[in-house]
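Structure ticket #2291
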Amino acid sequence: MKRLICVLLTAVLTLGLLLAAAPAEQAKEEPGVTVYFPNWNIYSDARCDVKGLPWDRLDCVNHAFWEVIPQDGGFAVVSTDPWADTDPDNPNAHFPQYAECAEKYPDTKILISIGGWTDSGHFSEMALTAESRGSFIRSCLDTLDAYPFLGGLDIDWEYPGVEREPEDESDEGCPVVGDDWTNYTLLLKELREALDEHFGQGTKLLTVCAGASVGWSLSKQDYASLHPYVDKINLMTYDMAGSWEENTGHHTALLGEVSADTAVKYLLEQGVPAEKITIGSPLYSHGWKIREATEEVVGAAADAIDDFTWHDLIAIEEAAVEEGTPGWHKGYDKEKEAAYLWNDDPESDDYLNFITYDSADSLAAKLAYINENKLGGLIVWEVHGDSIDRDWPMITEMHKGLHP
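Resolution: structure written out below.
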């Protein structure tokens, strides 16, 4: 009997130790609104500063961009514009403003986004070996130590496994110098482990950006293996059509063959939990001038015109007229949940112009989709595309839609 009691006590104690050692399962967070704030906003309108953001309606601010550079035989993470971000001689530097806002709005996370389209040139080289990854990770830890208000890192490598030549002198392109499929996962695994060891498990967020094209980008990364190491996978579900093409299309369709839905379903098939997936809403347009008048304006042969911010598009929306009256018209593709504008007034300089963008209607469809599919929220490029004069109407609707 005594021996049985000892065995039972030992079993109970062992179970208790195992439970104590096991990591606590984190509660699932509500879907949220993540906006990108580019550091070049400092050179635009004076209102485009950190303290002027609608912090009470934001769940996360991703500060863009920092970049990977070779340094001292290894790699480091540095700001793409230190004067704009951290220079103590700059009275409008972003990081001191972030520190103030972090105290006032502690529930809003602030992350640095590393990479971007033009600054992803050293990722593949950095991720190549354990030593090179380690030097980068140490630099990341040092940066987070230096700026305690930062809630983590957003890795915006555009894109692992996708070879791309630079477009101009300011563009690093995206060379592939090793097995990005494997090395990207190793980088995220080692970075996650280092963040948890240094700051405590789950204390700092680790998110990644991902292209929305399955064939061109998503299939080049091993999401089945890497998703346990990240908190969110931010799908950039915009630029799916654009003025670089010779036919009009939808650059941020929710449904259809080339759409947010297609990208989401691909990640779900790889085993990514729905709550880790976010989709994107662009606060800017792409556009074309249709070459010949046609009743089928979507898919028409066309040439590129300038893009607009959503703020600029308000005036066009408000000037829209009913069909049958020449001028701007609001269009909506219900099958793809995609909005567009076109002009059929031969007397207008805008005649045959076509604009693809996210309207209030297409945004509402995205918010319903996120909630119905229990996704992780919405990412926005970029925050100042919204109308500041009208008190951030799109950001407000995003917040209300995800926090009813």
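Closing remark: The longest strand covers residues 60-71.
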